[in-house]
Each structure stands twice: as C-alpha cells, then as structure tokens.
Amino acid sequence: xxxxxxxxxxxxxxxDLARFDNINPVSLRDISLRQGISLDYLExxxxxLRKKEIVQSVRGTQGGYVLNKKAKEIKLTNIFDAVDEKxxxxxxxxxxxxxxxGKPVKCLTHNLWDELExxxxxxxxxxxxxxxxxxxxxxRV
Amino acid sequence: xxxxxxxxxxxxxxxDLARFDNINPVSLRDISLRQGISLDYLExxxxxLRKKEIVQSVRGTQGGYVLNKKAKEIKLTNIFDAVDEKxxxxxxxxxxxxxxxGKPVKCLTHNLWDELExxxxxxxxxxxxxxxxxxxxxxRV
DNA sequence: TATAAACCTGACTGATATAGTCAAGTATCT
DNA sequence: AGATACTTGACTATATCAGTCAGGTTTATA
Lengths: 141, 141
Known about the structure:
2 copies of one chain form a homodimer.
Chain A: H1 5-20, H2 28-35, H3 39-51, E1 55-58, E2 64-67, H4 76-82, H5 110-126, H6 129-135
Helix pairs in contact in A: 1-2, 1-3, 1-6
Chain A binds a DNA duplex through helix 3.
C-alpha cells in the first residue's frame, strides 16, 4: 500500500504555492527549485490541477500559478482526485451486483476493505491546504 | 494508493481458515477452491505466514494449516507485516537525520504522511481475525 | 513400505503503472 | 522582439506485482 509520488508532489507543491500566493503568481520553476521536483513533472501535475480548477494559471513573464480557491476550501481529497491518486483497496466492482474474485458472492473481506477506504478518505477530506500551511508556519524556507 | 492482492489474499485465506479451524487442519487446496485463489500463490503466502508464526503447518495426508494463536489475537497488522504488505506513504527515511527529497530539511508534507500512516496502521491494529469471522457468521459458504 | 496428499522452495515471466524525460510548441508581459 | 513561462503529447526505463512452473521433501495411511 503505497502513496505515489504524483500525489505527494501535488500536495507538496500546493503547500509551497499557498505559502507564497498572497503576493504574486508563483512560477513552477521556483517550486521546482524549492521542493526539488522535476519541472517537467510539475507541469504535468499542474496541468491536471488547473483542469480541476484548483489552481489558475497566469501566462507571460512574471506568470505562474495561483490558487483558485481559499486554502481552507481545498481539501486533500480534491487534490488527490485531480491528479488521479486513488484509494483502491478492492478490485471487486463496488456497485455491481457481481461479487469478488469472479464468484457470485462478496468475498469474506469485502466489507473490511470498504471500511478501510472510508477510513482513509475521511482523513483526506478533513485535511485542508490551510492546515498544512499552518503546520509549517514556523519555517523560514 | 493501492492494496496489493497478496495482502488481500492473506487476510481472505486466514478468515477462511479461522472459520474451519475448530476441527481439522485446513488444506490450501480447499482454501484455493473456496476462495478462488491460485494454489501456487497461496503456498507462497502461507510460507510467509508460517515463518511469522501466524499459522502452523501439519504435514502429510489430511494435513494442512492451523492458526497458531487465537483469532482474537491475530490483528491485521500482524498479517500484513508477515506478507510484506507495507503502508508506505513517504519515501523519506523515517528515523534518519536526513530530510526528504535529498534536501537537508523535512519536506513540507512530511508530518502529514506520518499522520496518515498512523491513521491507517491504527485501523489495522484494531481489527482482529475474530472480528472478520464474526462479520461473516451469517454466511453459509 | 509404497504411495499419494500436502507442504515447501526458488526461479521465472508477462503485464502494468509509475516517474520521469524530451521535444516542440503557444501565449503574453515588458 | 524576445524572454519567460505555460501547454501538450509522445516516449521510455524501471520496478513491482501477480502468478506460473518445476522440482523437490515430509508424513499419514493403506
């Protein structure tokens, strides 16, 4: 059970962005340098974030990205959702009438994984970008 | 973020085992048939479970596997641990003095992932095999 | 004591997804 | 005009998973 870099980077970059957002658009180049994430990869990630209206882009010199909502309103769920970081505990199709493992019944552990998924998703939907910014408010860099 | 089949199968098989354990050792062949899991794969998984003393093997005809502890005492943590299903949210080394991403400081989201890991591990360490057996006590198969 | 059931082990493989890189753009501020 | 920065899509190396396969060893029982 592993979180992918894409999801981690997305959150990391957005926290970075949120911390500087007050003044000017933040360029991906800066984020790349500060966070040690490949610029090309960041571009892929931000393309997704923009499509899901989590950030807005500002083109041209001195351009960059700006949050599209208040940090408080951006939950981790939204971010993960945007970059296709999914919590997948079960292979069985959730709403289908079919069971798991090709059998016509639910497997012995089906409810368990559902429960786990909810458990994790709750965590994600409670945490906002603002929370994370606050967590780091005492840092200089 | 995905749970692997290995972890899922391990739990599934152990629940199956726990339900029949009362009388005789349960053969992997039976579990394979009932749960639709490849026998060869099950053998790999049970080899690990045995090494971690979660099950005991009984060789020879009419042999099979038996739980090595009470179902109540076997937590999901133990099972996942045995089959190397790890919860890995961070790449940064946990106890090292080094930070993340090759930088000398913790990344902006380090605490978050730690928190998430704990959140998930709590879930796993609370659930026991017995709980899962009870969840399925109304089933015939 | 032979034999078959069942455990045991290790090597191998196809498929898939991730984590990037690379290249060739387009838009826009100064 | 030109630099800066976004935008897009194709490409690729690597790793891991999920599972197969082959060749064992052990032991209960007939």
